[in-house]
Amino acid sequence: MEPTEGITTASSGVTAPGGPAPGAVTSAATARAYAESVARARWGAGRGVREEDVVDLLLVVSELVTNAIRHGDGLAGFEVRPVGEGMWIAVHDNSAVVPRAAYAFPTRHHGSGYGWPLVARLARDIVVDRRPEGGKTISVLVPLRDADTP
Known about the structure:
The protein is of the alpha+beta class. It has one domain: Histidine kinase-like ATPase, C-terminal domain (Heat Shock Protein 90). The chain has three helices and five strands. Helix 1 packs antiparallel against helix 2 and helix 2 packs antiparallel against helix 3. GO terms for molecular function: protein serine/threonine kinase activity. InterPro entries: Anti-sigma-factor_SerPK, HATPase_C_sf, HATPase_dom. Pfam families: HATPase_c_2. This is Histidine kinase/HSP90-like ATPase domain-containing protein.
């Protein structure tokens, strides 16, 4: 799989083996499948990837995409890019409202809202950008290690 300009998107015309067809990422389930297929294609050349890191990747993808659908006026795009330290994920939605938790980590919990603290714990380099055409993009780096890394 060769990413387009270093970024693999669901609408770039590049499909990872086993991933959804371009443009088909419309749910957390298809986003998870797509991200996992890109990770396994990137780390599959004999090295493999640590399974617990793949689980972390899938949790982060699921939380970000679900939040975009539920709280961001719908999923506007999903990008995956393998980088040296792991997978860079970007989720675009249609709401310019930045999650309150992006400014201050929640210290109290009211029964829901576990997603953002989970993302903050499992991912690095979390960035929230407003998009010029409206909405926002939340991008993160999820570290992935080779299977033989202790």
